[in-house]
Amino acid sequence: MSKLLCTCGNTIRDNTSSLPYKAAFLKDVDCEPFSDWFVGEIQSYVTAVEQGEVHRWLLDRGYSEEYIALGLDHGNLLHDHIHGQFIALRRTAYECTACGRLHMETAKDNSFVTYTPGSAGKKGVFATKSEE
Ligand SMILES: [Zn+2]
Prior knowledge:
The chain is an alpha+beta fold. It is about 40% helix and about 15% strand. The longest helix has 23 residues, at about 30-50.
């Protein structure tokens, strides 16, 4: 998504990373399965490294020979693997920086429902502590 038009008329732009008005979240029903999957995959990967079976581990998970030939280090391989699963499960939310409305992604990608705060104005609900 690159931009979302808020009910108030403000355009919410998503064209860079670390936006203080954007959040990625997991539904509660996905948190424990994701955590279990994460721990299982890390353990499986460590075992594959110990046994010299990283190539097989990657093939078993659907990675192509072309991807494997990139020769990524362990950290980058695990990043890609874990991040891919997270992206498949996550949903996105935006806070309008003008009126404070929350736009929450639904089960349908790039479809949002809007919630209006009890009082108007930006609340900074997705900002880091230093940005509040
Ligand atoms: Zn707005």
